Amino acid sequence: MDDVHSFLDAIQAFFGHLAAVSWGALGLAVLLHVVKLALRARAWENILRAAFPTNGVRYRSVFGAYVAGVGVNSLTPARGGDVAKMYLARHRIPSSSYPALGSTLVVETLLDFVVSTCLLLVAIKMSLLPGLPDLPSLPAFDWSFVVRHPVVAAFLATLLLGAGVLLWEWASRHVVAFRAKVAQGFTILGDRRAVLTQVVTWQTVAWLARIGAIYWFLRAFHIETGFRTVVAVVVVQGLSTTLPFTPGGLGAQQAVLVFALAGTASRSGVLGFSVGMQLVTIVVNVVLGFGAIVLMLKTLRWRERVASDDEERAGSAAATPEQAAAPSRSALPG
Question: Hey, where are the domains in the chain?
Answer without folding.
Answer: 2-308
